[in-house]
Amino acid sequence: MLLSKGFEVEMYTGTPAGDVVGLSDRIVADLEGFVREPDSRNVEYTTAPLCSYDRLLCALVKPRVKLREYLKKIGDYTLLPGSTLSLGGSDRFYRSDPNNPYHTYIEQTYGTKVVTASIHINIGISQPEMLMRAIRLARVEAPLYLALSASSPFLNGEVTGYHSTRWGLFPKTPAIVPLFESHRHYIQWTEEQLQLGTMQNVRHLWSAVRPNGDRRPYCLNRLELRICDLEVNPLALLAITALLEARLWQMMEDPSLDPLEISDLPAATRNADLIALTDANEIAASRDSLDAELRHWRDGKPILARDWIEEIYQEVWPIAKKRGFSCFLSPLKKILREGNTAQQWLKLHAGGSDSRSIIVQGIQAMACQEWELEDNLCPQLVA
Fold it and tell me: I need a surface site. Which of 60, 118, 148, 209 has the fewest CB within 10 A?
């Protein structure tokens, strides 16, 4: 048996020329399964929790195919790759629900820094203390998942200097989030933030990883990895998810795999030191992704993101093989070899392509891949 997994997928809508157009009010009104974001230019769909990677693949692809068909009916519109307003539009907010007070707070406090597209990966773990241990491990290794998924090197048509402009500029909230030592610690900390006003509600915890469930912070049933940029290649996304799942199985089989327990950083200040180290790693990964020099949570020593990922890959591959999902890890090798989306786009840019032609190429490649996967794989599962 595998862990249950589900995705929250945020995507921009726009024209085949790469210009973002706000259509979420029409989409949400006409299509089941889609919800609005505070800005109308992106829309979100979620997949039901599934254990099977084959079924997850179709759950990712089918809503997009349905959305594409709808967009064609209402005009010459499509879905766009990337996690930022790559070609322009960051000068103003386009409200999807002008009467929503939480959206008003978001617009007034953060502006268009939050008008991004991303993937949130949810992994089901219902035992509260096991979930907290999983979140501690995923939190200190979250920069690796950002490094694999980075897809936002452009903003307003310009190269920004980030591989993930989205995460480099994103207003993480609250500013300092500790490693939760227990479920009780998480409950007390959340109640305190709500009293202080540093969080407007229980959803207003915008960190790389957070606990999630039906009645936060009390009833929890899943880990939510929020750091990833929009990875539009479903096979690459499943590979990133498989790496996380395999790492969590490793942790469950080896309870000592806990940063708060086995890090060499001084015990008296370990929690704060690990958070400082991890925040610095997130900044480094947002700039240089796979080529970023990070510091390992075990000993604080420098290590390249790609080498750290390779190290974990080798550790968890036998665990994934034993549980029957090692084949879904294999696309990671291609990402490490050929680069993530941001690196591939920057290589094209360095070769003379402008940002618009790169985005247009990405739009076309994404559409072709979705149709191909839906045509070739999903019918077999239905049958």
Answer: 60
What pLDDT is attached to residue 1? 86
User: How many C-beta atoms surround the C-beta of residue 367 within 10 A?
Assistant: 18
Among residues 175, 170, 67, 62, the alpha carbon closest in space to that of 120 is found at: 170
Parent domain of 294: 5-382
Nearest CA to 37 out of 183, 284, 203, 215 is that of 203
How many Cβ atoms from other residues are within 10 Å of residue 338's Cβ? 10
* 8 Å CB contact between 75 and 66: no
Other CB atoms within a 10 A radius of the CB of residue 169 amount to 19
| Cβ-Cβ contacts under 8 Å for 181 (sequence gap 6 or more) | 132, 260, 271
Q: What is the pLDDT of residues 33-71, one digit of tens each?
A: 999 998 899 999 999 999 999 999 999 999 999 999 999
- Picking from 27, 4, 23, 3, the residue whose alpha carbon sits closest to that of residue 13 is 23
The whole-angstrom separation of Cα 304 and Cα 310 is 10
3-state secondary structure of 32: coil
Assign 377 to helix, strand or coil.
coil
Are 167 and 289 a contacting pair, CB within 8 Å? no
Contact 228, 286 (CB under 8 A): no
Closest CA to 124 of 184, 217, 48, 54: 48
State the Cα–Cα distance between residues 253 and 243, nearest whole angstrom.
15
Return the CATH number at 183. Answer: 3.30.590.20
The answer, as to whether pTM is greater than 0.85, is yes
Helices (H) and strands (E) counted in the chain, each on its own, are 14, 11
Which residue from 316, 347, 346 is spatially nearest to 332, judged by alpha carbons? Answer: 316
For residue 217, cis peptide bond before it (omega within 30 degrees of 0) = yes
Q: Mean pLDDT in the chain?
A: 96
